[in-house]
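User: As part of a screening pipeline, I want to sanity-check one entry by hand. Below is the sequence and the SMILES for pyridoxal-5'-phosphate. Please return the complex as structure tokens so I can compare it with the automated output.
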Amino acid sequence: MTDRRRQLPSVDRLLRDAEVETLLRTVPRAAVVTAAREAIAAARTRRAGPEDWAAEIRERLSERRRPSLHPVLNATGVVLHTNLGRAPLAEAAIRAITAVAAGYSNLELDLGTGRRGSRSEHCRALLARAAGAEDALVVNNAAGALVLALNAVAAGREVLISRGELIEIGGSFRIPDIMARSGARLREVGTTNRTHLDDYQRALHPDVAAILTVHRSNFEQRGFVASPEPAALAALAARAGVPYLHDVGSGLLADLSLWGLTSEPRVLDAVAAGAGLVLFSGDKLLGGPQAGCLVGTNALVARCRGNPLARALRADKLTLAALEATLAVYEDPATAVREIPVLRMLTLTQDELAAAAARLAGHCPSALRAELQPGQSAVGGGSFPGAVLPTTLVALDAGTLGPDGLSLRLRLGDPAVVARVGGRRLLLDPRTLPEAAGLAVGRALEQALQA
Ligand SMILES: *Cc1c(COP(=O)(O)O)cnc(C)c1O
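Assistant: Here is the complex for your manual check:
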């Protein structure tokens, strides 16, 4: 043992320190003892004690009080960032969650009869109307919705899918694996780049239970490519007497063509093209909570609702409250674009972004020599993969810390800020920051420079 390590205080001695004794008046003794032990252990590894033991213990206690899951300021400009929790919710959705979370609710009680009701009633009419479909069902997420739909419609039988759609959507979500787990047998048709209606037609035989289209949501295919229109596939499926299922992925309900965002399939169009079931996420372009939405014909949605997996995948009351409130905002399209944060962020004008960047730069410490530069934001979440969203970035000179060093300190700060690194600069994109966050970002930068 080195001399310095022998000099480390004991827990008992630290607890007798006057400042630590004050802490003990407000913090449980066990928590202070743990923090003191950790401080000593850290000092042993570092081979040096902190200058101020009481401050070190206080710091460790406040770290502990901070929940593992906490808010982050997103300065990346990626609107639907899966690692940052995808869609921030509309005010109306937050109010609905708060109202339902605080007490009891009529989640599964029919208040008219006093008898047992169904949780799947709550978003049913609104979602069906928004999608232009006969019926609707909400489950935990879109991957779950796909498993449920395939199990309900095609367990033990074959489902036709184009080879160009056997895609990986994220981490552990690959379409062939999902299909296998659903109990349906995958039957590939066509080729990676080109699949024709004929390919589906030739593969149809009595053991085929459905035709499935999965939107290639996180990449673009260009060049010598072809795939049949959904309406043509729906007609073929109808002639064969099997359902046509369409996983559109991101759940675009709004019309964003005015803003040049046209490459993503709209839910309404997919339903109108004749799909028996259309599946999508609640927390991508729809801008609501994590959820899996199934919309379609009465018969097919009823089959899904009655399937035991629907119980295993059911949505909770907070999700249903938030989704219902979000869908209600869509009843007026102009309000939706203004009040649903994802739509608002995607439709900010270049002037608005330039002004926001200038205000944000004004909050940055002068040592970082903030400059404005043109750049691009991203839709993210596997939506509009090729879309270009011009923005104005605040570029910071991180000095000796370097952009990665400053970026690390910002992530570990309170509030945590997630930024982008571009070359030698740290980049902040105002598109994904709340307007009121400028001050907080400025302070976080100040702290990061001092840390
Ligand atoms: C994102 C996505 C999913 C998965 O949605 P989750 O809600 O994350 O489960 C499924 N299919 C497609 C095409 C997607 O883009």
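Points to compare against the pipeline: The pocket of pyridoxal-5'-phosphate is lined by residues 141-143, 169, 214-215, 217, 247, 249-250, 281, 292, 382 (CB under 6 Å). The domain at 91-331 is CATH 3.40.640.10 (Aspartate Aminotransferase; domain 2).
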